[in-house]
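FORM 12-B: Structure-to-Sequence Request
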């Protein structure tokens, strides 16, 4: 589908007063958009209330079976519903669903001993395209059914990675990874553009840490999978084509 945007909204910011309203105001009414959301702050809060561990490695949550159930409950439930209601109140015909609905996302266990963390292996793009053609805005909670349905434990998909997979499958005109940072900062300066080939170097040097590691790797994966453009930044990207840091694919030359 031509001109579709995939917008990932960071879960750590959804509870901040005015932040979600600012995001909703930036959406262009009637334009084809798929929204993918996080919800890490809410998952952390409920996990701690229940006495469960909160552990992350390079921005990825270590997910036990109990934590996986909390992730599904929070992301597919309260967080997804809040976002759908905010979008609909802003005049956007939003529809909530999870990666498990309709077989939207298929995933396998990710390597690295993270537990019930999945990496997307396929996206049912036709389902999203049919919703977009009907004038709806899908709002996707990033969980996936387990590879072994009998196990019954959902897989936790990092929202940046889920958004990248969806953007690639749709050959999106643009993927926006929206959080509370203005872009990728190097030596104190927000970069207007970055070569995708430099991302691993930034990670290795410690320039990018924690959640930014995940965003950079997701951006590179989205470009490799077929997304035409990726930007990392804050809510200004929704209404300003020059805001954020644009990732540029494969222009590095040998030394």
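FORM 12-B RESPONSE
SEQUENCE OUT:
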């Amino acid at each position: 589908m031509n001109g579709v945007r995939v917008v990932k909204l960071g879960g750590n910011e959804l509870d901040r007063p005015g932040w979600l309203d600012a995001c909703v105001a930036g959406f262009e009414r009637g334009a084809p958009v798929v929204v993918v959301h996080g919800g890490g702050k809410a998952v952390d809060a409920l996990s701690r209330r229940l006495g469960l561990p909160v552990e992350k490695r390079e921005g990825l949550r270590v997910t036990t079976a109990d934590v996986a159930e909390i992730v599904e409950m929070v992301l597919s439930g309260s967080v997804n519903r809040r976002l759908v209601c905010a979008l609909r109140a802003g005049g956007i015909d939003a529809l909530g669903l999870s990666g498990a609905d309709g077989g939207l996302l298929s995933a396998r266990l990710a390597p690295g001993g993270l537990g019930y963390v999945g990496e997307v292996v396929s996206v049912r793009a036709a389902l999203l395209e049919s919703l977009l053609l009907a004038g709806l805005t899908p709002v996707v909670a990033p969980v996936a059914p387990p590879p072994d349905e009998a196990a019954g434990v959902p897989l936790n998909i990092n929202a940046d990675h889920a958004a990248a997979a969806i953007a690639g499958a749709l050959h999106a005109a643009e993927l926006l990874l929206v959080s509370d940072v203005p872009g990728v900062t190097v030596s104190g300066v927000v970069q207007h553009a970055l070569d995708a080939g430099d991302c691993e170097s930034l990670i290795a040097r410690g320039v990018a840490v924690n959640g930014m590691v995940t965003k950079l790797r997701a951006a590179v994966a989205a470009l490799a999978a077929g997304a035409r453009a990726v930007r990392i930044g804050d809510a200004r990207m929704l209404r300003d084509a020059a805001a954020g840091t644009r990732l540029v694919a494969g222009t590095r030359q040998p030394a």
